[in-house]
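#lab-general

N.A. 3:47 PM
ok so I finally got the sequence cleaned up, no stray characters, all 187 residues accounted for. can someone with queue access submit it? mine expired

B.Y. 3:52 PM
send it over

N.A. 3:53 PM
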Amino acid sequence: ISTLPYFAVFRTFRVLRSLKIIKSIRSFRIVKSFKLVNEVSSLRTIFKGLLKAIPGIIATFSFLAIFAYAYAIIGTNIFSEEFPQFFGTLGTSILTLCQVTTFDSWFSGITRPITQVYPWAWIYFVSYAFIAASVIMNVIVGIIVDSMGKERERQKEKESKNKITLEQLSEQIFDLQKKLDNIAKLS
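B.Y. 4:20 PM
back already:
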């Protein structure tokens, strides 16, 4: 199906130009590589750990969103008149704070021009950058590491239970062999 748009017949019809979307379906073949997750136990442990960390990550991002919203309101109220390109509306303020969070030229592109007009503005930006990027992102990393550790412990417990059952099974086989030997001696 994904090769149909390559034929000239289909390119001539305007309605069938939408078949180019079908070409993108081929990119879903990469999903086959996720079968590796099931085959390799260490990948399976990492994947399960990441899945179990999602609720904590969502809660942390929710807190970060509320925190960014509060800082965006403050920034819009203070800086919107002189710097509408960064803090003109609440939406642009949030985008600016996202840029600060990712450290994408936040100091030279945003903070320096603003601190030339407002010399105390560095407190606003440094406090936001410290709390948003340093603290919140470290909390997310901690959640993921904790979740991975718990998943590894679960995996080890599961393996130890399997070893116990194998040991018990070997003991039962040994007992059965003794009983069969006794029956053979009696016959």
